[in-house]
What does this fold into?
Amino acid sequence: METLVRPQPFIPSHPVCPPVTAVASFSRFSFFTKPIESKQPTMEFSLADAYNYIRSGVSAQATARLRSLPSTQRPAFKRSNFDFCTFSGLFQQRKADKLIRHSYLVCFDFDHLSDVEAVALTLLNDPYFETMLLFRSPSGDGLKWVVSMEQNYAYRERFFPVETPASYHPLFFYAVQHYLHTTYSLDVDEKCKDVSRACFLPFDPNAYINPALS
It folds into this structure.
């Protein structure tokens, strides 16, 4: 992922809310200190915080060690050696029913890609979903793609005003999952539909953040 092409922003024909980057710049979510058994958040994070963490090298040693292990040993090592966050919101505890506030962010997880760089460029250039944050997975052969559901939620809220961001989260996930599969033949980890889904934070010096957020 040496060269990342800046995608053109998606501008809806009927604006119903501020640009997604403006909304995302205020989004906050929970950060947790390893291991994965941790249920109490350590602090609040922003997308810029996550980006700086991923590029800083805090988890560089753990990332290198993970990638040197046989695939059978990686899950246990990852659960014990990586800090993580819940991109979709702030939580009292890392449980769906302990959500304090949804961030309007959804992280899509792509595993075991044959060409990580090609998929990264495809996502960055997608005309409908503007990338907020994009980085390699801890294993190195996958991607984590963070987008905002704010515009879609605001438009839907005009017709379904009783719906909450948390209840809309899985609907948005399935819509984007279908779009990615039919448009690019890309498959997304089904577990991303969970609003409390944990995302490990690896080292990726080439991580991408939307320029409006950095």
About this structure: The beta strands are 29-32, 43-45, 84-86, 89-91, 99-102, 105-110, 131-136, 143-148, 199-200, 208-209.
